[in-house]
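S., here's the first fold you wanted:
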Amino acid sequence: MANVPTTNTLPKLFTGMADAGIEHGEFELCDPEESDANLRAWLGGLPKDGSRVVTFTQDGTGSYFGIWLRANHADVEAAPVIYLGSEGELGVLGKDPRAFIELLGSAMTFDGHAGSFFSTDDDADYVIERRERTASFAKQTLGLDVLREPNAIKAEAEAAYPDLQAWVDANNAHR
């Protein structure tokens, strides 16, 4: 598929994410240059259909978050953000990078096993500060006063891209 980018460029909206200190305890930025190696490990090879996933974060379990690039959504600025769980869990978390930044603003953690979000009960000053920093980054980056709930953002994304499981099934060399 000639129109799927071959570079590991991240959306412009993600600029400053690391500097803002919005990383969650279970959410660490990773090198997008390792995307092909990450996808080979997860799928057992690169996708047969020429699509790509540019991975940009990894959680403590080895699950990846990435930009899903295919012929019908090859623009990194508008492509969906997906979750590839360490035990095969899947999720479309944002219909585009903008929606994913909004989701991050909730400072809630995605549980791939349950397919839902949770917030830690930790009221330590550094946790509260990180939550506030994350919400502030999202609001400023997106120009919003109020952020939507993460479940609404995920539902919108899954409705826009319902074929993630079929794509994985068609490209998974482990099966």
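And the second, which I think is the more interesting of the pair:
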Amino acid sequence: LYEWILSRPRLLSGTAFFICLAIHPSTSYYLPSSFYLLPMSNSIYPCLWFDTQAHDAADFYLGIFPNAKLLNRTPFVSVYSLNGQQFMNMNGAEGPGFSEALSLVVRCKDQAEIDHYWMELGAGGKEGKCGWLQDKYGVSWQIVPDILGSLMSHPQKAPKVMYAFMQMKKLQIADLLLAAEGE
């Protein structure tokens, strides 16, 4: 059964494969233990669907985040954690791929972190406006400073800060602070 499944990667695309295993747990003795995912500790986590680059993308992200760990890898799936958030990358997507309709937000404590994530995640990808970028796999990311929320919640500062970051690609904390003070 394992060889038959491996020979049909498109058959496994989508959640039907995982639902099938959940409904029929008695099939587990037909598949090697490496085929199964580790239990995810978060009840909600993103599954990023790639055509064939799930493992490459996981390795790319694991090399960028300092608190990153590969949790499990099967022929079709990589499960990993980045800064405590679990992710699952899966091969077998058919269709248009990723869009900006879903983005992953990286909150940064200072400009050095913003610069690091902007450079590393943006390598081979596309810069957007307002701290957004697409990585080389097409996944959208927002690289934002921790202070942005407090600046945007201040009624007098928010319009000035918003105007400032709408002009930027990579967000610059010093420029946001200047804008907040009206300079």
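Why I say that: DSSP finds seven helices and eight strands in the chain. Residues 152 and 158 are 4 Å apart (CA to CA).

Talk tomorrow,
H.
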